[in-house]
Amino acid sequence: MNVKSIAVVVAFLSAGASLIAQQARPLSPPGNASAQVLGKWVKGETTAFTMGGERYLEGKWIDITYGRPLLRGREAFGGTGAEYGKATNAGAPVWRAGANLSTRIRSEVPLSIGGKTMPAGEYSVFIELKQPTEWTFIVADWAVAPRLNANIPGALFGAFDYTPEKDILRAPMKVESLPFKVEQLEWQFGDMTTDSGRIVILWDKTMGSVPFKATR
């Protein structure tokens, strides 16, 4: 095989690998939102290469991991009356508030949400979509199943087969309209203080949030 033929083969293989990589890219890639609480900024003997030049010490992490669906021309929260949210739930009793696997929250410290306490640890998060301005934030002790119909006791794929007996807390969410459309679903932390803030979800032209307070 001459050099020209080898070059053609290499180019063909590279194009094929690129196509496979594009095809393998998930429609709803994984995402992560994080915050730190209960820490303090401290000046050291040497300047830290951070904004303000200080070090953040003794902070405790809160993380949310989730799938990030895109609208791709769809409406996220359709339906009226009893039909509201049914398409979003994709046939599940409540919304997984993401895509693919169940949305998860992990905290190194207890969180007070809606007057109840979520102990430190990792849990599943769901949202009950009652009406366009009436959402309920749910933290539940369901484990994560890797696929639909995995038949693992105590585990769910997304929110399919959800039932409320494992709920740790339920809290009303503040639901607001956005002046722009968010293409890809996003969880975030907002209005953060040393020990409190809001857990926020944004998608389409809607933002839902719930306040929390961290304790040691």
Task: Give a quick account of the main beta sheet: strands, pairing sense, barrel closure.
Answer: 9 strands, antiparallel
Overall, the morphology is globular
Q: Output the radius of gyration.
A: 21 Å
Give the strand order, joined by hyphens, for the main sheet: 1-4-5-8-9-12-13-6-7
Feature tags:
mainly beta; two-stranded antiparallel sheet; single chain; 216 residues; 2 helices; 9-stranded antiparallel sheet; globular
Structure description:
This protein has 216 residues and is mainly β. It has one domain (28-214). Helices cover 12% and strands 45% of the residues. The strands form three sheets. The protein has a nine-stranded antiparallel beta sheet, with no helix packed on it. It has a two-stranded antiparallel ribbon with strand order 2-3. Strand 6 and strand 7 (116-118) form a beta hairpin. It is globular. Mean pLDDT is 91; it is low at 6-13 and 15-21.
